[in-house]
Amino acid sequence: MRSFIIDCDTAEDDVASIFLLAKNNMKIVGVTVVEGNIDFDQEIINALWALEKANVDAPVFPGSRRPIVKDFTTVEEVHGKYGLGEIHATTSRKPSPKHAAQAIIDASKELEGKLEILAISPLTNLAMAYLLDPSLPKRVKKVWVMGGTAFAHGNITPVAEYNFWVDPDAARIVFKAGFNITMVPWDVVTEYTINDQEWNEILNMKTPLSEIYVKMFSHYRKYDKDVQKLDGHPHPDLITTAVAINQDIVEKSKHEFVIIDNSDSLTRGMTLIDHLDSDKPWSSSPNTEIIYRIKKNILLEMIKKMLS
Ligand code: BDR
Ligand code: CA
């Protein structure tokens, strides 16, 4: 059985990722929570609630409440006040007293060479874990990252994706650290939105999980249509999770050199990809597998199986 830590800023798509891993019999070693989408304490509650709904008994480790250097903003307008659209999650479960960064280090020792990290949020916890223990990348099998852009088409600024923009210093540290990274960019996942027909099919499923899905995603869907000008809602975190679970979903990927702009400028958080594999001084050998295309039919099959 494959073993995962999910590092998330628990809004609706992060929760759906927890559901997808659980439904596919992946072992969830723990959920580490980081600053991002909404109020940090509600993110912890959402993670505990998601595990409860998925019938998974796994610990939740609170991590960093803020980026390493810069200030950031939460985005309740995107995900709803409590991060889950129409749902205000509550739970009697309690988080672990252990810090997320320490939990990542400990799990990497217990599962040396086997641990996979699903990093679907700002990369502060992972950067902190690496700074505490620079030998971490050698013990981690894989880091699946939702973040950044492939073609510099952002969602929080014209050129930056939210997860990298929140903590560009952490993102820069993580991509330089020597982890085995596969990255799913924002401007790739926007090609695979859930259109009106697919949304109606899910509406008609009427299972306990499909009803949660509809309540969680209706706010996000409206935002994506009205503000991001998409024809439906995308699944950044869920697609990253689907890629991690099932590599057959990948239609095109490429190994390239990636570095994140952590300057305080208009390009803060921008993903720089050396598409030319050049020998320029700022470039280096490929450090990331970037996903460029996936198979939508497999994504839909996985979503429907998850909600059934
Ligand atoms: C990413 O930012 C968050 O809003 C989502 O959860 C996703 O991880 C998309 O830019
Ligand atoms: Ca997320």
From TrEMBL:
An example of a Pfam family matching this protein is: IU_nuc_hydro
Q: Which GO terms describe its cellular component?
A: cytosol
Q: Name one GO molecular function term.
A: purine nucleosidase activity
Name the GO terms of the biological process aspect: purine nucleoside catabolic process
UniProt keyword Iron-sulfur present: no
Determine the domain of life of the protein's source: Archaea
- Whether Nucleotide-binding counts among this entry's keywords is no
Q: Give all residue intervals belonging to the Inosine/uridine-preferring nucleoside hydrolase domain.
A: 5-296
- InterPro entries found in the cross-reference section: Inosine/uridine_hydrolase_dom, IUNH, Ribo_hydro-like
* Alphabetically ordered keywords of this record: Glycosidase, Hydrolase
Record's protein name? Pyrimidine-specific ribonucleoside hydrolase RihA
